[in-house]
Fold this protein.
Amino acid sequence: MDKKQHSKSTASGSSSSSTTNKPKKTSSSSSSSSTAASVSTMGRSAALPQPARRIIQNFLLVWLDANIDESKEDFQNSLKHLRRIVASITTFTDTRQCFDFLSGITKEKAFMIVSGSLGQKFAPEMEAIPQLESVYVFCGNQSYHEQWANKVPKIKGVYTKIEPICKALEIDRQRCDQAMISISFNGLDALFMYTQLLKEAVLEIEDDDKKSIKDLVTYCREQEDISEDQIKQVENEYRNHTPIWWYTAETFIYPMLNHGLRVMNVDIIMKLGFFIRHLHNHITKLHREQENNMPKHFQVFRGQGLSSEDFEKMKKTIGGLMSFNNFLSTSRNRNISLESFARPAAKKPNSVGILFIMNIDTTICKNSLTPFAEATSDRDKAAYNHQLGWVYNRMGDYSQALPYYEKSLDIYKKILPPNDIGLASFYNNIGMVYYNMGEYSKALKYYEKDLEISLKALPPNHPDLATSYNNIGLVYDEMGEYSKALTSYERALEIRKIALPPNHPDLATSYNNIDQLFEHHNQNHSTNLIIGYLKLHVKRFQSSSRKSQRSKTRTRNIGTNEQHLSIKMNKQHDILVYKMNDELYSKSMINNEKQTSVAKLVNQLCLMLV
């Protein structure tokens, strides 16, 4: 039985989307504007002089589409998803303005979302912009645009929905941050000495943490690339978490600190001075707690990209000293550092993928003033468990996948809001595992929880809702509750008819699942299902029948005995009978052996309904 669809296809999007200009928030901004960030739209007019940008992170996002329509609800939903990854978003309808804007970037990296038509036309120009890190093609015809996009190195993929873009963007943003940590290849160079002096000064300052947090919040609200939600999170919750938690959490703190230390922005460093002290002291405390249990010798790894220029500098310092002018994150897992960071960096133009292998001798490190400690964030633990669950699930080892998925969900439930749309996907994944294991009642429980969150977090006709209803229908089908299965399949189909283009494969999935529901169950069940199907559709058929002003006679072949039922289309009853029969036959919901009896059933039912 070829019934399908468990994985969440995520939010739909359109290449004809845009952003809106919004006023900058002040410290007294209302909650209704809490999701706003730096967003601007550039039109088709002649290129305008650009004001100085106040960017304090390493990256920004541009969205180029000639058909931008900022009034679309679909676009506003897409913007909310993107702001969780990159707060500074600028949209363009004019290609020249977009490229002029990108050319003016000197200290940051840019990511770009581009429509299929413009991406195809201007691919060589995009490749030539050194500040442009990655490109994501957002279109309505994936297979067509993949033919040219796969040949362009900077293009990370072709997408028809916004969520996959967000996932790819989040990964690329992390890699970008990791690669942009400032490195000195000679221990006596000016940058190294300046960094050391500044660090010592910051660590010796003693001030009021409450005032420091207030000053940081005020400063961040004056910038263009920090969302109000994240600012409020730091303002209200800073003392609820450890410094290492904040350093690894999805907030502005890590990229802001990284950017400040990389470009030696004293304003940023001083505003984050209290956090630098807290993080340094936290690592020192953990080091004291862990040093007696640490092995004498061990290895850690770090994968990242280096520019070709920096790589040449590094080769010249073989046997010398090098320093990372920041807090340094490493991993004991060589494969994660290699596959997640070093190898992808090697695929970029003018970039070299580097895997640093660091041999740690704790006896030597005891004499160092730089503390180190082993720390794993909750988010890292959750992501690690989810990845293992995904691997085992792909292997078909569902009993192994389940506990990893459940551990991941338990952690995410602690760090995410209860109705965060990300939780819906985790519930869906566990439901899918239970479905594959044949434990349908448990699968239903998780699928329904997925639907509950999705209904609160998504627009009413969002494609992910259709996936949730479809998966619930699959479970009811397997449990033998065919009427409930039909209702869920129908709801999925209704949403997909509204949200998706008419030739979308998910529509075929819905029609196929309804078809299979009729095809693979016995006559008694089929009869009940057909009655249910007709009742669901009778009002729609009646409505369309009233609009019909034509009167003609049509003959249709019904059944294997080639019995003919002549239907004169001049009465409401006859119109209704014909339309219902046509609906059933056109979707292959009944086989030839049942057609004659079904035709009689349709006729009788319509007599009762009209």
